[in-house]
Each structure stands twice: as C-alpha cells, then as structure tokens.
Amino acid sequence: MEQRSLFERLGGSEAISAVVDDFVARCAADSRINGKFARTDIPRLKKMLVDQVTAATGGPANYTGRDMKTVHAGMGVTGAQFDALASHLVAALEAAQVKAGHVNPQTQETNQTTASRSPRSNRPAVTQR
Ligand code: HEM
Hints:
The chain is mostly helical. It is built from six helices and no strands. The protein binds protoporphyrin IX containing FE.
C-alpha cells in the first residue's frame, strides 16, 4: 500500500515549485487572463500557490494566504477565464508527467506514484512543451 503522502509522491517542494512556475508562465502568456494579474506581486503569488498545494497534499507548509473567496471576490472572473486558468494548470501538471489520477483530487489517493522523476533518468521530468 502506498504510505507516502501525495506531497512526496508528487516529488516534493522542487517538483511543486517547478509546476507552479510553469503554470504561472502559461497564465502570464495568455491575454484572456493575464490582465487580472497586472498589479500582482508574482513572486509572492507563486509562494502562496506552492504553500497551498504543499499544505493540501500533506507536505510541510502552512498556507498563510487569504481564503479563496476573499481573494477572488470582485475580480469579475468569467467562467471562460476560470476554464483558461484551469487548462494551464492541467497542462503544467501534464508537462511534469503528473498522472491523471493526481490531477483529479477525487481519485488522487487511490493512484500510484507520479513520475515526478523519469524512471529512466535522475533528472527532474518537468519539461516545457
Ligand atoms: C483553481 C482555481 C484557483 C486557485 C486555487 C487560486 C489560488 C490563488 C491563491 C492561493 C492566491 C494567493 C492568495 C493571496 O494573495 O493571499 C491567488 C491570488 C490571485 N488569483 Fe487565484 N486562484 C484560482 C483561480 C483564479 C482565476 C480563475 C483567476 C483569474 C483569471 C485568479 C486570479 C488571481 C489574482 C489576480 C490573484 C492575486 C490577487 C492580488 O494580487 O492581490 N485566480 N489565487
């Protein structure tokens, strides 16, 4: 039985930071949503995202940011913009070879470890498309 936390199976802080970096870069390149982040402290946002994912997956971090409802209230995010952001998250996870079962939180605990490192090499498998 898999004993390690999802945080560990994802590859820990290094892998999560790499996915967040890639995710934010994809969002920054998308004119449908990048205007929303014009006044955002991006290094801080990245840290908040890493901490949020770390805490949610059983890793050693507390999320110290604001709650999601407060943060996003009044931003006027459309459904299409939400879908655009979500697609970048999925793409960043797929680029890092995170298995589909981990991408869907409802099944994450029943799936096998991710290939956060390629079985054929020791280098991180986080690659750009
Ligand atoms: C899966 C959905 C999402 C999650 C988990 C998420 C998560 C977060 C987190 C953790 C922060 C930092 C909180 C803080 O500053 O204390 C944040 C901030 C932010 N989010 Fe999201 N977010 C999501 C969707 C979106 C969408 C769809 C948009 C707009 C297209 C958006 C726009 C922003 C902006 C502009 C900020 C920075 C606010 C500021 O500069 O003060 N988020 N988000």
